[in-house]
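Cont'd.
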Amino acid sequence: MSQSTVDVPPKGGFSFDLCKRNDMLTQKGLKAPSFLKTGTTIVGLIFKDGVILGADTRATEGPIVADKNCEKIHYMAPNIYCCGAGTAADTEAVTDMVSSQLRLHRYQTGRDSRVITALTLLKKHLFSYQGHVSAALVLGGVDITGPHLHTIYPHGSTDTLPFATMGSGSLAAMSVFEAKYKEGLTRDEGIKLVAESICSGIFNDLGSGSNVDICVITKGNKEYLRNYMEPNPRTYVSSKGYSFTKKTEVLLTKITPLLERVEITEVGEAMEE
Amino acid sequence: MTTFTVPIDNGDSVRIAEEESQRTLYPYVTGTSIVAIKYKDGVLMASDMGGSYGSTLRYKNIERVKAIGKHSLLGASGEISDFQEILRYLDELTLNDNMWDDGNSLGPKEIHNYLTRVMYNRRNKFNPLWNTLVLGGVKNGKSYLGMVSMIGVSFEDDHVATGFGNHLARPILRDEWHADLSFEDGVKLLEKCMRVLLYRDRSAINKLQIAKITEEGVTVSQPYSLKTFWEFSSFHNPTAGAEGSW
């Protein structure tokens, strides 16, 4: 009986080989490592002429703020942007991947990308990973069919909404939207409402903080307002400035040249047959 | 001989040896959030009248805000039977206090302190009263508003909310509450919060009561419902322009 095991390369997609081992380890009491989450407030809303997306700028690693001013509004296409909450690596990777796919698609079709194309590509990817890709997204854009706003959950389900919030600060932001949203908002009213809801997330949720980023997308035009509002400036700067230890004194300067390269040509013996 | 295993904290429930099964392990019939604010003449407290049995809306006529003595209002979210037990304790307390017949009556501060002690001691014995209580009142012209949770955390503030209200109502209150609200403004603010809770809390129902306490006494309003708005065009036709999606 021959025992030949041929190493077949994996066909792509998630490899579930280690799941049984992981289950056994968790039963024995091992805690799985936690992910770097963005702990976020992201929002989107549809106004009269298009879509406005908003996000805070804090990235957390457990209780520590890892990045005080990160960018959570990702570029997908000239007319489509996507906010991401959840594991930072997952949101970056998945939006980057779909952005490239959209670009290739644009070259192939010769047309502007549509929001539902991005939606379907993201949804298919996330569903096939059964929720293990921990990316919760707010996708918004204006295409030939009009303005669109969608939310995409890590397991792959989507919602189409007039206003949406995601992330740990989503309840604080949603309370502002539910209380104040109306249809047919103008651009300035919309920006004000989005900024208000992100501020609600920043000040009432510990996982969100620092500044407000806003992106306004209308037909044929987009404005990425990075750090539109900075409600948490550094207020105290020491007047003394920084003082380093006393002047360093140079004691000795010595230059050691590298050794000259020596070529050794050995006359080797011819290989024996 | 009963073997006592060290209780391991497993989310909401506590695993213990079979003989000692007389402790509260999880809540059964629960009330959702309470939202309360101080205003010009006293304290306003809003709650809905629902009692959920897990995911079923079992009882729709539960009063979760009750008057205590002459000077206080107690609102509770969490296990309803524990709330009724607390009302019994407070009854005994006020009765005993009355028997002194010295013209004094228990004010909101005293009742808040009593409740804090009760909740904290029960928690220390691993047998909590599964409630978050809101205590509001007015005595000698001073209004008082405080909160006690099931683990004994207790504090005073100008506006409080329990359960989901913490996440949905408090941001609104932090933004829009200010001292010396008139009665109408206070009710409008509470209704704003209760409306958001109605939209976004699955255990909330559209039947609420607002209770008011001032120096003159307690008034609990008749149950009424809030107007809701569902006519956004995106709700009517969510897949317009995105055929085939959901």
